[in-house]
Structure formats: structure tokens, C-alpha cells
Predict the 3D structure of the following.
Amino acid sequence: MTGASRGLGARIAERLALDGLAVAVNYQQNAARAEALVEAITAAGGRAAAFHGDVTDEAQVDDLLGRVEAALGGVDVLVLNATGPQPKIAIEDTDWNALLDQLNFFVKSPVLLLRRVLPGMQARRFGRVIHIGSDVVALVPERNSAYVAAKSAQLGLARSWAKELAPWGITVNTVAPGWVPVERHAGTPRDALEAYAAKVPVRRMGRPDDIAGAVSFIASDATGFVNGARLTVNGGVTLD
């Protein structure tokens, strides 16, 4: 899975390994964190390996997946979690590069990755492609037009793929988290967290395990008839 060395990605990787999958922990910057996650998975009885690579670069994607296949075998479950900074930008300051920064992660990267693993999935007539989306597509927060646009495009991409790939036994679904505090939210004031939680119908913030559980379900053999769905995991802030 991409973007797996920390935050939601790390917890999803741990859960998939617990489910019995061999997990490729992709990272771009923090090798030590990725290796620590692999050690934790291995210590818990799972199987994992860390793989460096920029998943927005075509040449690196090809090399990355070649190394993954050599070490762990063919890719049956592709979890698309890589992301970059998500700055708040007013409309008057939003240029094309701001949009490209988001589209590179949420459209270009998924296309590159799926195109590389698709022949193997088609040959095996099995695959689970899971996009990690966001509830911002429904909430459309202000000063986030580039991020919202890219996440909306990602959702459309997933739905289109779901119809096209279904005849090969390949399902494509989206897990769309709400606000789930992880390491990068460490500086968020407590009153901001409490104010958000008060607006969540279940009256709490999301936890990484909530998202990992949803991905585990979508990745399982039990969901062969779940295709093209968006599973929003935000405690009922939005209703699909």
C-alpha cells in the first residue's frame, strides 16, 4: 500500500498484515519509520517489507512494483493512500500548480499504479483496488478547492474503474474517512478537536482503527459483490 509508513497508512498496513496479507509498506521520505513498522508487523507474526518510491513518478512506480513483486509476489490488493500537503488556499490564490499538486497524488498516482499491477490481477482474475478518499467531497470546506477537486476526481476514477474491471473479478471501492487525528495533527488545539467531535453524531473523533477496519472489510474475500462503493467513515457527519 502507498503512503504506509505513518498515520492512517501505518495502521491500515498493520491490520492487513493481521488479516494474513503480505504487506508492501511504501514510503517516500522516512525510511526509519517504515522499517520500524515492518519490524512491528513481523514481531506480531505478520509479513511485510518496506519499499521506497515516489508513486507520482512513472519510472519509480515501475521500479517500485518490480521490487514488490520480486519480494512478496503479485499484487492482489492495491491500497491507494499516498498524499501530500493539503494547504488552505483562497480561490484568488489558487493557480494551476496548486491543483496539479493534488491531482498528482489522487489521480496520476492511482493511474500509474493500477496500470502496472493490472495485467497480474487480470491474469489471476482477482483484485481489490481501494482508494482512500475523503468526506471533503461532500463537505466541500472553504479554501480547499484544489483538494476537493482532486478528491472528487479520484472518486470518479474509482467508479469508472469499478465498471470496467468487474468482468475480471477486480473490485474498486473507496473508503472515505472523516477527520481522524494522526501524527500530523499533533499541534491541533484541544478546543478545535472537541468542537469537531461535538458535531459528529457518534460524539467522538475518528480513530485510525476505524479506517483500518473498513479497509480490511473491503479487502476481504467477503466483499466480492461490493463494487464501485464509497464507504464513508466519519461517524455520520455526512450520509451516503
